Amino acid sequence: MKATIKIQGKQVTVSEGDIIFVNRFVDSKAGDTVEIKEVLMVGDGADAKFGSPYVDGASVSAKILENKRGKKVVIIKKKRRKGYQRKQGHRQELSVIKIEAVKA
Predict the structure, then answer these.
(1) Each residue's pLDDT tens digit, 78-98
(2) Least C-beta-crowded within 10 Å: which of 41, 61, 73, 103?
(3) If we measure between CA atoms, which residue out of 60, 90, 64 comes closest to residue 75?
(4) Longest dimension (CA), the chain
């Protein structure tokens, strides 16, 4: 069964067993279970239910596999002929989650 969920401001379509990367959950550890109640759509094909905005009684449970950091993104600013150069790096904090159950 598929479900479209809203998680941390982004919409993701998932099914049971999927592994996705999301922004890190605050105060979470590997092995914790997360219950996502913001389900926008649940079901397949003709038996799909759409919420306005969320489907009543639907939820998705996910298990946090690990917390890690993403790839480094380098930001470079330069203005020609002015001697102005800045270099800055950023690594996003991520949680790897596995979808365990979709409840309609």
Answers:
(1) 999 999 999 999 999 999 999
(2) 73
(3) 90
(4) 63
